[in-house]
């Protein structure tokens, strides 16, 4: 059983190596290699998850035969296991669901490079989840940025190249801030390993020394990550990046890339700064205000949008706002709710993006609501998946979104301050706004019209159907059997501190 | 207050440089100048790290023959971080430059606002 301790490292290195190999393979071979690699990582991550749950402890894995202060470390606990398994599953399903459209959207000689980028992205995601070293985290943040930029720009038309440029510029600003935060932190504590930093910062905070630099460090790191994960005022790059890339890219970017940064922020909160210091620093109030503003602004922008892809992208801004609101409560319950919302949003948003591409496929490759009318009848599988995703986003019971909203509300009621009132009111308003635009979308795809697009021969592909059915199943599992997952999240957060 | 600034003038200069790079990357409309801003921003951080790692009057941490006392050489870790950071910023710069070349070949301009306008017209 102890062999499982090697799995995180094996997955990361294997992904990097396969990325290099994929770049010289034929597109079809690259696809087979890449999909089997993601499946392998998925199995490994589940092994790590069950191993950590069964032993009830986390483990650190020493790299390069040097012990902690000199060598690098990987750490895996229950929450890391949950995140890694979830990320790999979603990535696999997004690839399967969008597989058909990759061939349409990407030129033939570049298709193998797409899979190289996917492998690189997966390695950086897993490294961000597992790493126990702040500088390693920074390096993989940059690898993640490059890979994500590549995923956007590989569909080489003007829109996607401009979107990639905007994404890269904003992301680089974010990583610059993160890097100077890490540098100042190293200057203050002299450590880069998360557990050592936490000890030093705890001692500094207990003596009341360096209060201002500590706040600056927390602020720089938080703002850097907030830019990269598209918190409300920094979301300008998001609609274009999600709206003009190929379906798999949009699904992976919205559900995995931004979520990996959020997970890094959680790690910084718990394992680097320590929750006491972090929650006392008042940065949680900033998160709360920006999160609440994002929830409202994202929904209003989504209502104004006529393009279905961009509407879903703006809905992401609102959902990121929910997650930051959960962080903003500054309580254990709020964190659990936020982590669960990360999972439920990742599962739902990737399904929506892939289903939306399926719907526009049978509507002459258009994305406007007027063109998509009746597409739910033409591509039944995509229609059903889109409806499930829309209901989950609105927060209808049975679906994943309901549970996360329930936990967010109960976390809000637990805080007993001004935040409680604001959070409950904004949650209610934002749910109504969500319902406005998502129900409108569902109604429009099931309004019979535009018969000239009808193609009686059209059958959704088998792989697409398998992907969609699995997505719907995950949504129901998160909605109906949320207890074991919530327990695992709670256990994982306890292991963090 | 001013005394502190003069005592830590490397750090003060690197923070000013970081600000210059950051605003150039954020606000300048020319793509090439944006990339220059990115490099200034990264270099400022390396200056900060190198300045923090240096201890006055000590030697380079390269072992020749016998291992010297730890008190005789400077902290080698910031230098290692700078090297890693340079590799990262080189690759990011390469990606940004290649994107700029492709945008320039298509739209014959480096002005990002102009490119945005042209892309919107393309629809």
Please tally the β strands of chain B and state the result.
0
Helical segment tally of chain A? 21
User: What composes the largest sheet of chain A?
Assistant: 2 strands, antiparallel
Order of helices and strands of chain A: HHEEHHHHHHHHHHHHHHHHHHH
Helical segment count of chain B? 5
How much is the average pLDDT of chain A? 90
- CATH topology name of chain B, in short, is Helix Hairpins
Count of DSSP strands of chain A = 2
Low confidence ranges of chain B: none
Indicate the overall shape of chain B.
Answer: elongated
Biggest sheet layout of chain B: none
Q: Can you list the strand order of the major beta sheet of chain A?
A: 1-2
Oligomer: heterodimer
* Coarse morphology of chain A: globular
Distance between the termini of chain B: 56 Å
Work out the count of structural domains of chain B: 1
Residues in helix, % of chain B:
over 70%
Largest interface: A-B, 28 and 36 residues
Rg on CA atoms of chain B, Å: 20 Å
Class per helix and strand makeup of chain A = mainly alpha
Describe the secondary-structure layout.
The complex is a heterodimer of chains A (497) and B (123).
Chain A: H1 7-22, H2 27-55, E1 59-63, E2 72-76, H3 78-105, H4 111-130, H5 134-153, H6 158-189, H7 194-207, H8 211-228, H9 238-244, H10 247-273, H11 275-280, H12 283-304, H13 308-328, H14 332-361, H15 369-372, H16 375-378, H17 380-394, H18 400-415, H19 418-445, H20 462-480, H21 482-496
Antiparallel strand pairs in A: 1-2
Helix pairs in contact in A: 1-2, 1-4, 2-3, 2-4, 3-4, 3-10, 3-14, 3-20, 3-21, 4-5, 4-10, 5-6, 5-10, 6-8, 6-9, 7-10, 8-10, 9-10, 9-13, 10-14, 12-13, 12-19, 13-14, 13-19, 14-17, 14-18, 14-20, 14-21, 17-19, 17-20, 18-19, 18-20
Chain B: H1 2-7, H2 9-27, H3 31-53, H4 77-107, H5 112-122
């Amino acid at each position: 059983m102890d062999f499982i301790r090697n799995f995180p490292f094996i997955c990361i290195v294997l992904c990097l190596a396969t990325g290099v190999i994929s770049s010289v393979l034929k597109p079809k071979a690259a696809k087979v290699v890449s999909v089997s690699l993601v499946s392998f990582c998925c199995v490994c991550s589940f092994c790590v998850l069950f191993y950590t749950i069964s032993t009830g402890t986390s483990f650190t894995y020493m790299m390069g035969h040097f012990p902690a202060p000199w060598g690098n470390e990987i750490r895996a606990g229950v929450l890391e296991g949950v995140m890694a398994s979830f990320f790999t599953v979603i990535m696999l399903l997004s690839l399967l669901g969008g597989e058909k459209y990759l061939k349409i959207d990407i030129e033939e000689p570049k298709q193998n490079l797409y899979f190289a980028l996917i492998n690189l992205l997966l390695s950086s995601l897993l490294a961000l989840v597992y790493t126990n070293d702040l500088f390693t985290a920074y390096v993989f943040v940059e690898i993640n940025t490059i890979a994500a930029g590549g995923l956007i720009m590989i569909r080489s038309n003007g829109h996607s190249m401009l979107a990639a440029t905007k994404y890269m510029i904003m992301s680089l600003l974010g990583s610059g801030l993160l890097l100077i935060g890490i540098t100042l932190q190293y200057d203050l504590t002299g450590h880069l390993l998360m557990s050592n930093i936490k000890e030093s910062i705890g001692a500094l905070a207990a003596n009341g020394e360096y209060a201002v630099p500590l706040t600056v460090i927390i602020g720089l790191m938080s703002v850097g990550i907030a830019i990269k994960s598209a918190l409300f005022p920094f979301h300008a790059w998001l609609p274009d990046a999600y709206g003009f890339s190929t379906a798999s890219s949009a699904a992976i970017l919205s559900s995995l890339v931004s979520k990996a940064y959020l997970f890094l922020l959680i790690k910084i909160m718990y394992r680097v700064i320590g929750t006491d210091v972090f929650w006392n620093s008042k940065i949680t109030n900033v998160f709360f205000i920006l999160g609440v503003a994002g929830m409202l602004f994202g929904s209003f922008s989504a209502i104004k949008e006529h393009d279905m892809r961009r509407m879903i992208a703006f809905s992401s801004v609102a959902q990121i706002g929910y997650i930051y609101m959960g962080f903003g409560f500054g309580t254990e319950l709020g964190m659990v709710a936020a982590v669960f919302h990360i999972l439920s949003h990742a599962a739902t948003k990737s399904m929506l993006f892939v289903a939306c591409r399926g719907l526009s496929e049978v509507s002459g490759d258009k994305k406007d609501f007027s063109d998509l009318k009746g597409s739910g009848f033409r591509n039944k599988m995509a229609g059903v998946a889109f409806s499930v995703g829309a209901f989950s986003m609105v927060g209808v019971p049975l679906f994943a979104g309901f549970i996360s909203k329930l936990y967010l509300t109960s976390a809000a009621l637990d805080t007993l301050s001004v935040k409680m009132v604001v959070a409950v009111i904004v949650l209610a308003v934002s749910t109504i706004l969500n319902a406005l635009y998502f129900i409108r979308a569902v109604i429009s795809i099931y309004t019979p019209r535009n018969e000239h697009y009808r193609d009686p021969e059209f059958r959704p592909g088998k792989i697409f159907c398998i992907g969609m059915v699995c997505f719907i199943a995950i949504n129901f599992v998160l909605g109906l059997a949320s207890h074991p997952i919530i327990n695992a999240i709670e256990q994982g957060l306890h292991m963090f501190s | 207050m001013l005394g502190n600034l003069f005592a830590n003038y490397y750090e003060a200069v690197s923070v000013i440089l970081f600000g210059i790079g950051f605003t150039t990357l954020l606000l300048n409309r020319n793509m090439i100048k944006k990339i220059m801003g990115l490099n200034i921003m990264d270099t400022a951080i390396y200056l900060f790290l190198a300045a923090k790692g240096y201890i006055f009057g000590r030697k380079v941490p390269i072992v020749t023959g016998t291992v010297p006392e730890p008190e005789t050489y400077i902290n080698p870790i910031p230098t290692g971080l700078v090297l890693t950071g340079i590799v990262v910023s080189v690759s990011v710069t390469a990606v940004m430059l290649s994107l700029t070349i492709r945008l320039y070949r298509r739209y014959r301009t480096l002005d990002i606002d102009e490119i945005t306008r042209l892309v919107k017209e393309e629809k």
